[in-house]
Amino acid sequence: MRIIISPAKKMKQDTDVFTSCQMPQFINESGILLDTLNKLNYEEAKSLWKCNDAIATLNAQRIKNMDLTRNLTPALMSYEGLQYQYMAPGVLQTEELEYLQQHLRILSGFYGMLRPFDGVVPYRLEMQAKLAGPGFSSIYGFWGRKLADQLFAESDCILNLASKEYSKCISPYLGGDVRMVTCVFGQQIGGKVIERATLAKMARGEMVRFMAEQQIGCIEDIKGFSGFDLEFADELSNESTYVFIQKRADS
Predict the structure, then answer these.
(1) What HAMAP family does the database record attribute to this sequence (predicted)?
(2) In terms of pTM, does the model score above 0.85?
(3) I need a surface site. Which of 32, 103, 213, 218 has the fewest CB within 10 A?
């Protein structure tokens, strides 16, 4: 089984607490993307990133000085989004971190697909970015089916905890004996399942931590997840979608 999650826009650099175990599998491709980004002028880069001047200036400086082989932070410790806060990798035990190293994969516009202890540097490049270069007109086009092929070579059972933006680089290539289960975390309102972004991000992180703590090896066992008063809804779920409904709505 492999678990796929999205990255986070906000990243930190911390080379003291953990040392990176290995280089990312697609580091050569990241080098191509870095070269392409370096050819953009400031306004083109800002437009690509869809951000304000402060963030654009920071990332333009990062791109200019970026060295993909030095001052690396393990990917799992580098991302700072809500999902990662609730995953809380900094407090996990050794066997739980080993579980994540084996089972967890982080999808990335810049790095393609990362194992938790692959070394990374801060970057900004979303999977849906319209970056164009030799032979490609978007990040989706750049990666094609490469990430899906690597993932399916590792396992024929995928737990999708990624956003649609990122799972789109995997789902079009499903076929054969590969099974992908997508988790939905929501509230039942007016007979409909409503999934709110904040709850979904927190629950995805909590789910990853739950799986690591329980050392879950069978995808059906995640039905016991109960974080944030969520409960598996068998009547709303099927073979490819597991729905978790919050028993009470936070006001």
Answers:
(1) UPF0246
(2) yes
(3) 218
Query: Please, are residues 241 and 184 in contact by the beta-carbon 8 Å criterion?
Result: yes
Q: Cα separation of 115 and 75, whole Å?
A: 7
Residues 81 and 140: beta-carbon distance below 8 Å: no
Measure Cα distances from 179 to 42, 71, 119, 158 in Å.
Answer: 43, 37, 29, 6
Where do the structural domains in the chain lie, given as residue ranges? 2-182
What SS3 class is residue 143? helix
CB atoms within 10 A of CB 56: 19
Q: What is the pLDDT of residues 76-112, one digit of tens each?
A: 999 999 999 999 998 999 999 999 999 999 999 999 9
d(CA 178, CA 159): 11
Are 202 and 86 contacting, i.e. CB atoms less than 8 angstroms apart? yes
